[in-house]
Amino acid sequence: MCFAKTGRGPTEDLRLKMHQMVDSFCNNHQNQPEGQEQEQVALLQLEDDFNEVLLDTVDLHYQNSNQESAPLLPEVRQELRSRVRRSSVPSLEDESVEVWDPRESFYDRALRLFQRLLCCLQQKWQAVLAWVRRMVAAGMQALCSAVETVWSVFQDFCSFVAQVLRSAIQA
């Protein structure tokens, strides 16, 4: 497969790393007659590796995109990682193991396994994205509420000062 490209930013590096992981998986398992259990272990490791590289890229992308704003809080970063690792979306480990056919070609089996892997990862990351959107909405609602409170106090202050000045002028 061999995909080689020099990465320029977090997303380009992500693509490169994912291609390298797939290349490595294929190179390591293509010529080895493995049983279903070893293949499942290797695929679970690949799922974990994908999640880690995706999480690292989220961190890098956020840092690069938001240099002027607040950094991603460690608690939020940890919660994001926890949600990916303990997602309610079934992972490959939770799925029932398909019947392993030793006559199936490596590439047919790899395609089938990668389709399962990608489906699991897609569902997991969609759930994480939905959580992030809910958190942002809740955070923005809290920020709006805080600004509204401050604005109300400021308006009251301005009204009070205007009344004091009117009283002083009338006196």
Task: Give the SSE layout.
Layout: H1 10-29, H2 36-65, H3 74-85, H4 106-170
Structure description:
With 171 residues, the protein is mainly α. The protein has helices spanning 10-29, 36-65, 74-85, 106-170. It starts with 9 loop residues before the first helix and ends with a helix. Residues 1-5 have low confidence and may be disordered.
Residues in β-strands, percent: under 5%
Number of domains: 1
User: Cα-atom Rg, whole angstroms?
Assistant: 26 Å
Count, helices = 4
Largest sheet: none
Distance between the termini: 89 Å
In terms of quaternary structure, the protein is: single chain
Order of helices and strands: HHHH
Q: SS-based structural class?
A: mainly alpha
Strand elements, count: 0
Spans of at least 5 consecutive residues whose pLDDT stays below 50 are 1-5
Helical amount among residues, as a percent range? over 70%
Mean pLDDT: 82
InterPro entries: IL-32 (IPR028067)
Protein name: Interleukin-32
Organism: Ursus maritimus (Polar bear)
